[in-house]
């Protein structure tokens, strides 16, 4: 390692680990296709999939399900893993692990982190998502549902 260089271990220690779900339900009208839940975070004024930082020693799936419940008020049944998304957040590397998750029971109540949610068709969800990287997760969900 050269002077001023970082080791892989140091970069790993600096990484923020998070988890979330592409939360979906069967449409209540129309063809019964999937509707995807997006959350609006007023702090960032963005639309995204429910996600959040992991607690110490929390495994990724447990954290993803906890975040869905905290942000949307919905319990869910986890499905296929949809992969990991990596990006810089406030200058630090962040890795978010995602799962497909079908909403079961629950009701949304606005909170400090999320002030509203919407249920949208996949094409409407793609259009509403703020970050292009989150649009790829819609495609991953649809692929997982077609192969299930």
Descriptors:
148 residues; 7-stranded mixed beta sheet
Q: What would a concise description of this structure say?
A:
With 148 residues, the chain is an alpha+beta fold. It is 29% helix and 41% strand.
How would you describe what is shown here?
The chain is an alpha+beta fold and 148 residues long. The chain has a single domain, classed as Nucleoside Triphosphate Pyrophosphohydrolase (Alpha-Beta Complex). The chain is 29% helix and 41% strand. The protein is built from four helices and seven strands, in the order αββββαβββαα. Strands 1, 2, 3, 4, 5, 6 and 7 form a seven-stranded mixed beta sheet that branches. It is globular and about 45 Å long.
N-to-C terminal Cα separation, in Å? 46 Å
Radius of gyration: 16 Å
Please, how many domains? 1
Overall geometry:
globular
Give the class-level CATH name: Alpha Beta
Query: What's the helix-strand series?
Result: HEEEEHEEEHH
Instruction: Sketch the major β-sheet.
Output: 7 strands, mixed
CATH architecture: Alpha-Beta Complex
- Going by CATH, the homologous superfamily would be Nucleoside Triphosphate Pyrophosphohydrolase
Helical content class: 25-40%
């Amino acid at each position: 390692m050269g002077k001023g260089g970082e080791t892989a271990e140091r970069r790993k220690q600096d990484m923020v680990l998070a988890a979330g779900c592409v939360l979906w339900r069967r449409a209540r009208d129309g063809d019964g296709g999937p509707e995807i839940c997006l959350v609006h975070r007023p702090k960032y004024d963005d639309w995204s999939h429910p996600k959040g930082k992991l607690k110490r020693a929390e495994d990724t799936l447990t954290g993803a399900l906890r975040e869905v419940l905290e942000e949307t008020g919905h319990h869910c049944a986890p499905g296929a893993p949809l992969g990991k998304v990596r990006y810089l957040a406030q200058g630090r590397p962040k890795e978010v692990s995602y799962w497909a998750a079908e909403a079961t029971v629950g009701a949304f109540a606005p909170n400090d982190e999320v002030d509203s949610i919407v249920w949208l068709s996949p094409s409407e969800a793609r259009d509403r998502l703020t970050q292009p990287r989150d649009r790829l997760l819609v495609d991953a969900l649809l692929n997982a549902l077609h192969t299930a």
